[in-house]
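Provenance

Sequences were taken from public entries as deposited. Structures were produced by running a predictor on each sequence independently, with no templates supplied. The record for Ubiquitin-like domain-containing CTD phosphatase 1 from Nesidiocoris tenuis is shown for reference.
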Amino acid sequence: MEDQLKLIVKWNGAEYELDELLLNDNVETLKNSICKKTGVRPERQKLLNVKFKGKMPPDECEISELKLKPGFKILMMGSLEAAIADANTIPDDLPSVINDFDIEEGEEVPIENKEVYLAKIQKRVSDYEVKILNPSRPGMKLLVLDIDYTLFDHKSAAETGYELMRPFLHEFLKSAYRHYDIVIWSATSMKWIEEKMKLLGVSNHCDYKIAFYLDYLAMISVHTPKYGVIQVKPLGVIWGKFPMYTPDNTIMFDDIRRNFLMNPQNGLRIRAFRQAHTHRQTDRELLKLAKYLDSIANLDSLSSLDHRNWERYLRSWRKEKMKRRGDSGEGSSFQGSSP
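Predicted structure for Ubiquitin-like domain-containing CTD phosphatase 1:
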């Protein structure tokens, strides 16, 4: 039939074909069709790349008005009722350590030099395959970035991925790219990393390039006396595979400090970006960190810095720069603009 339209919905790492839609069906019918395929109820669905006049289409809007081409892939966010129920139920066998905890400020967990963990890192170096997206550039330092709550609020409700993107993300990455190769390392699957980077417009941006992605399979488990077994992101995996990167030229941003337990001197704990709709007008973390990266870019070694004091270092750097220039100018060539 000429008025039929076949679409595809991408959700939870899988694709589902919608082959019973007509052009004069409305969005409510579309959502019901998605529900039949995925089990996600219509009121739980966020169709991220479906728009009508720049906004989420109302349920009564006809599919023909959305100007979707046959085979169009709809990106959906949404949770099953069973998953929501599980998330709201406290299990009887709840472990003493949960996945989203963090170690306390200043707490020492001396594990980075233990042979058992160094052996695990070497195994990742040998077995983990890295897909190079863009080649390393000679003389560049390395910036390793987390995604969830670092660049993206992955739990707040939104009609578009843009609403959940941390302010100044693209300006930050463009600025950092002048001195740093950029790697994304998330404790999620590679499929979700790729989807989120596409959603945020990072994977194909013209002003900067991502060297490669790392997922949860590149992480290792370690045991701590206080917290038990936890998963961490050892930078030694990168250093072992790419000798041009070392402790002297690498810095990692993550909202959870435990992720860089194996490399405490190279980690900077970024303030978590949560409740995007409330905080996106006031969050300036990436703008300030872009200036910090600029201020340390010419140092011979980054591992000698205490990144816990990055704001204090940045203030001192600004004062020294102003003193040298003899003006009252800006502390950095980076200029952010409100998204």
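Confidence is low (pLDDT under 50) at residues 86-101.
Residues 4-79 form a domain with the Ubiquitin-like (UB roll) fold (CATH 3.10.20.90).
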